[in-house]
Amino acid sequence: HVQLVESGGGSVQAGGSLRLSCEVARYSEATDCMAWFRQTPGNEREGVAGIRIRDGSTDYADSVKGRFTTSKDNAKNTLYLQMNSLKPEDTAMYYCATGSWRSGVCAEYTAWGQGTQVTVS
Question: If I label 105, which of 9, 46, 63, 65 is the partner at 20 to 30 A Cα–Cα?
Fold first, then answer.
């Protein structure tokens, strides 16, 4: 059973940067991709970025393109989200998830972490 733990969130001023980490325990080789989501109170989770495990292909939401970068360290079983030029609208709880790569995006999510809070002011 795949377990995910996010970390690295915090409070930053607009224009600042944060790097989120998603540590994977009991990693499944069947996991095809991983993704980052964010959610604010009263709203559905919003897809932020995805990465295919096999070849590192990525996809990003238009709202974060050019500012956020997702990457992985296979040796450490860790997924990262580097967030630069942060804006107040980036404030949210950020989650990582595992899924399947479909038509250039990570989908069909099967496992989720508990989230890490990012606050930009």
Answer: 9
